[in-house]
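Lecture notes, continued. The same structure-token format from the folding unit now serves as the input rather than the output. Read the line below as a description of shape only.
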């Protein structure tokens, strides 16, 4: 679990941790549709009606928890629920790094987080920055640099 002011992130973990999140969630209405079919046969031979059939759709409403602790604990690795932006529930999916065939890919999530922390720039001192952030990004739109040395 990670808590930062109003934001909470919970995925996997223990049942007690999951209950801490689910206790904060409201209950939701769930609509259930039930199909009912029936038939009646007539015992009056002179009526001209041999049987009557009917089909009905019945809608019922029940109130259930938005999310149960068991559903939280059963989440696969890389998935979590978070209460963000004033208690709104979000489901998060985080892909894991795959280093097969990519030497520039970090080994794990900790390496990604460390690099993000190292290179993070706030807007607090925007007026003191000499070079805009978009100037530091390499220009990959120049085809001549990409195709140098390629016979074609």
């Amino acid at each position: 679990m990670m808590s930062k002011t109003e934001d909470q992130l919970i995925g996997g973990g223990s049942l007690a941790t999951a209950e801490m999140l689910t206790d904060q969630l409201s209950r939701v209405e769930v609509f259930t549709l039930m199909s009912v079919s029936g038939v009646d046969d007539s015992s009056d031979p002179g009526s001209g009606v041999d049987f009557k059939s009917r089909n009905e759709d019945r809608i019922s409403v029940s109130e259930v928890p938005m999310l149960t602790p068991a559903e939280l604990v059963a989440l696969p690795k890389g998935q979590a629920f978070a209460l963000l932006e004033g208690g709104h529930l979000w489901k998060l999916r985080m892909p894991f790094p795959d280093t097969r065939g990519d030497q520039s890919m970090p080994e794990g999530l900790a390496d990604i987080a460390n690099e993000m922390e190292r290179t993070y720039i706030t807007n607090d001192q925007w007026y003191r920055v000499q070079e805009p952030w978009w100037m530091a990004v390499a220009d990959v739109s120049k085809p001549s640099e990409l195709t140098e040395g390629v016979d074609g």
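Point for the exam: DSSP finds four helices and six strands in the chain.
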